[in-house]
Amino acid sequence: MRSTFTGVEIARRALFAQQAALQTTEHNVANANTDGYTRQRAELVAARPLPYPGLTMGALPGQIGMGVDVARIARLRDGFLDRQYREERAAAAYYETLSNVYDRLQAVLREDPELGGTGLLAAADAFFGAFDDLALNAERGEAREQAIGAAQSLVDAFWHIAESLDRIRGDLDFQVRQIAEEVNSIARRIADLNGQIGRLRPHGLMTNDWEDARDHLLDELAARVDLEVVDLGNGMIRVTIAGGKTLVDGTDVRPLEIGTDGAGRTTVALGGEALQARGGTLQAAMEARDRVLADLQGRYDALARAFQAEVNRRHMAGVNLRDILAGKTDPSNIPFFVSRSWLETLDPAVWDQLQSGTLSWTDAQFLDPNADPPGSAYVWEARGIGDVAVNPLLVRDRTLLAAAGAPPTGIADGRTAKALAALRTAGLPGLPTGEAFGEAYGSLIGRLGIDAQRTDHLREMKATLVEQVDRQRQSVHGVSLDEEMTKLIEYQHAYSAAARALTAIDQLLDRLINGTGLVGR
């Protein structure tokens, strides 16, 4: 049955409910600029009325309401937008990392005339120009000095590219390891939060702020690797990455396995299998290191090998000045370029024989046993762009530079020098396309530019999508100070009205208690 003090209870509940709503709004205002915070709302519901339907319910007509209760403090979060945001952020981070790598590669390989034309193409032009001059002045030592100097500058440009690519590769390898360690750190923190939330949620306790911290970590993880989140139903979650591999399962963490392969590169695996993610900075760094740089390095190496092979072929068919003065007419058979790594491991006794001429550069002992087909290459030939070096014999004695044809017509014969200068436009047989050096290099740089432009376009597109989805998320769970201030006024007025109702009930009870029974006294 109804109590005389029912009105007091209704007013009390109203005061407490509006006070909870006010405090929740104040919490929102306090965290308006907190990264990762989700707006909260006190969900008010009508309290259970009296009499409650049942076998012992009263026979009075209707039901008397019992005021208001706070059902829960809700987080205003949209799971679908969270999922969409994390998918787009993984893709955006992937293309942003690749775009940064392409920007760095273009900065290293840029041919900038304003900087003195110090790139590979400028060095190659100087090389061909020096041999043009040598063809006209084959007997002059100055022209020979310039030709050797231009060749060394070209080799320096080769080495600069090789060292730059190695440095970028090393930086990317370090980045792969660092990101993998960050993923493991985030996973452990998510598991810790899972444990705290899982201990409290089953008892009806509020864990909103911890869930915000966990969602913020999930957003950070999504920038590093693609992920999926599964709600386990007890407040905890399961996080899978790279197409379904479990990283976090409740309070259990299966960390990424970080190792090193035979080439000294950092490897990342999960569950014994190499990680193959669909987005994120980790996958982008691995692809940039293993695909983009490897492909670019391969094309540079192929260009360097084809160039040095054709220069050597033409130079070895010529006759040097020393042989001409000695009355010899056979080709000098001395290569112009050799392998730097081969020089570093060469037996000094063998080098002395090559230097004295008692051992030929085309001797069978110099055939590369690993060449395909056998006998098609020599061990002294450079294997890549960072392995090319000018033959030290030519550097020490410029008279060994073959400028004349075979047989020579005299010390002014510059036919071989002219043939070397003609490589400016002549095709290189060692290249599959048969292009000239300049054309092949232009194709290489052009392809790099196209890939960079495409990646940059995808980066901008994905960044725009992330921004759009994030705006939608913020419209749901972001704090609007204008809206919160409006709610503060609403709850303030409701609290004041509840207090006024309690005062009215107090006055009624005072009249009832202190004024009843006075008649007849």
Characteristic key phrases:
521 residues; rod-shaped; four-stranded antiparallel β-sheet; Flagellar hook-associated protein 1; 10% strand; alpha+beta; 13 helices; Flag_bb_rod_N; bacterial flagellum; three-stranded antiparallel β-sheet
Could you please describe the fold and organization of this structure?
- The two termini are about 30 Å apart.
- The strands form five sheets. A four-stranded antiparallel sheet has the order 3-4-5-6. The protein has a three-stranded antiparallel sheet with strand order 7-8-9, covered by helices on one side. Strands 1-2 form a two-stranded antiparallel ribbon.
- The protein has a domain at about 5-75 and about 485-515.
- The protein is rod-shaped.
- The chain contains 13 helices and 13 strands.
- β5 and β6 form a beta hairpin.
- By secondary structure, the protein is of the alpha+beta class.
